[in-house]
Amino acid sequence: MADEIAKEYDVIVLGTGLTECILSGVLSVKGKKVLHIDRNDHYGGEAASVNLETLYKKYGNYAKGTEPWKQYGRLNDWNIDLVPKFLMSSGELTNILVSTDVTRYLEFKQVAGSYVQQGAGPKATVAKVPSDAAEALKSPLMGIFEKRRMKSFIEWVGQFDPKDPATHKGLNMATCTMKEVYDKFGLEAGTKDFIGHAMALYQTDAYLETPGAAPEAIEHIRLYGNSVARYGKSPYIYPLYGLGELPQGFARLSAIYGGTYMLNTNVDEIVYEGDKAVGIKATMTGVEPEMKFETRAKMILGDPSYFPSKVKVVGHVLRAICILKHPLASTNDSDSAQLIIPQSQVGRKNDIYVAVVSSAHNVCPKGYWIAIVSTIAETSANHHLELAPGIERLGKIEEQFMGPPIPLYEPLEDGTKDNIFISKSYDASSHFESTTDDVRDIYRRLAGEELVVEGLREGIQIEGGEN
Amino acid sequence: MADAGTGPKPSSSVKLVLLGEAAVGKSSLVLRFVNNDFQENKEPTIGAAFLTQKCNLPTRTIKFEIWDTAGQERFASLAPMYYRNAQAALVVYDLTKPTSLIKAKHWVAELQRQASPGIVIALVGNKLDLTNGGSGSEGEDAGGDVENDARKVSTEEAKTYAEEEGLLFFETSAKTGYNVSEVFTAIANAIPETSLKTARGPGAAHAAARTEEQRVNLNGARDPNAKEGCAC
Prior knowledge:
- The complex is a heterodimer of chains A (467) and B (232).
- Chain A is an alpha+beta fold and 467 residues long.
- Chain A has helices spanning 18-29, 52-59, 92-100, 133-138, 144-159, 178-184, 189-199, 214-231, 245-256, 383-391, 433-447, and strands at residues 8-14, 34-37, 49-50, 80-81, 87-88, 108-110, 113-118, 125-128, 236-239, 260-262, 265-273, 276-284, 291-302, 311-324, 337-341, 352-358, 369-376, 399-402, 406-411, 420-422.
- In chain A, strands 7, 8, 14, 15, 16, 17, 18 and 19 form an 8-stranded mixed beta sheet that branches. In chain A, strands 1, 2, 10, 11, 12, 13 and 20 form a 7-stranded mixed beta sheet that branches.
- With 232 residues, chain B is α/β, with parallel strands linked by helices.
- Helix content of chain B is 29%, strand content 19%.
- Chain B has 7 helices and 7 strands; from the N terminus they run βαββαβαβαβαααβ.
- Chains A and B meet through α3, β6, α5, α8 and α9 of A and α2 and β7 of B.
- β6 (108-110) of chain A pairs antiparallel with β7 of chain B, so a sheet runs across the interface.
């Protein structure tokens, strides 16, 4: 079997998270010879979807000798995401999926609704995020005069052209802040909150005071509006059987274009020549006997867990995975929803996200909902209190899984010095836009050019296999 | 997503997965079935991701979506996605290579463990052209001790195993085309009508139709109302 591993590859990829699998797929389509390895026995790494038994064992919250997962129906009906995110239907991941044809392997469904909370505690209002002028006029989130101001703001966003000063309302877009833009329309604090956090999807309020950042914020609001307009209902879509299908789909793309896949394989050593990484020594387990091998590559890319000495911690995510037997309250009994609790509504610096999916997405048996509450840690203890405003929204919880804070890693260097290109951890944001930003960034660093996904498949001869 | 088809006969899509040891002729069988073509010394599969072929039965049309392993089985790295919702599987061995039948049995066990309970599995012994009973003539009693007969797996042995496990069984030659379309026709016939309906057929139950409406086709034309630029 070892003789089936080549002596040299163009790229060795470590870890089968979504970022790594997209890059593997893209590089393989572009003709690079890829070896893709994961130490786990499954695809997805940190971004896998797992069944209930795996989840119980991961969190260890059950008595020894008991098998609590058995009371929750067929094990294979559960596909619980470890990282909760949704796709924006007009977002970059959707573009990549379509232009690589990975959509062939996946089926998507709309997320039924996007909601935002105003206020805190028992008096809080949970309401649908208005996505167009008509919805703004009906929204319980605003009073009658504010609705009109919101309507004119949304209409202006639609006409805004960064290159045409006539559409800039007399503001200097190069220097003004988003706060000044809001103030131009006289929008109230609560309205700014749901625009900035539930539409532009900022996780903190830092964007408000950044000079020159207004066009970006407007672009985010438009992405939201376009994503809603694509299929209606909400801006989000979600793959049947869970997010773990995404890395599998891109891994298949890579394999189809000649990528070699090895799970259950430990990296024993990164081999260097001078400062540059030139290969790996590894062991494939789960076979008798274990298979040790060594191979070379022009570059190595992977997730932070494979390079503990080359990454730094930039924050911690708190996450609680909850199993429910009912939909999220105030969401019109939706089979799925996103609820954003903007930070200032509950006296925090970071938003709290609640992502809900259900049997409609083939991630659990009928009659169950999976709700994942997450935020960025702001304290060093009492983490359950930080998540409490989100947990309170869930009503009766059948089962809750919450571990210690999850560190967020970033690479220390950009990879040009050592030929090692490291991805970032999946952040607390509710969508994949930051993941695809990372994909583009890594691609730029390792290929020295921008990644162009449009027309990726065209012009590439695949029949006959000249490999 | 009404899949009723244009003709008078109902049409349904069926996901069929290929499994078997390397070089037993998985892709060649499919190429023969889809294009009626055969390539001598074909390279290991690259790029043949997803082939489709219709199979016309008297009462309905089955459209096979055929998934190749793309080599991911080599280091035991097939993704669960591969088995997901597969309604049929072709488990191929090389009847001149006994170890390939052992491997085929492993795949059958894997399918029984991972795939949907109702999956139709066909066990196929390929390369019948290398036996002296092969090349399009009756392959039934090619016992095996005649000269130039490369057969190493007897029909009896594989057939008995297939019967025990409830598999369809065929011996084929992708090279001559012998028995190839028969395999696919037999699979098409063996797929229960009920599983076709719940999958993608037009007669889906009310509940299924309701969930169907939220499915999205990312490749489809955009909603004409969705203006590029901004839809606010």
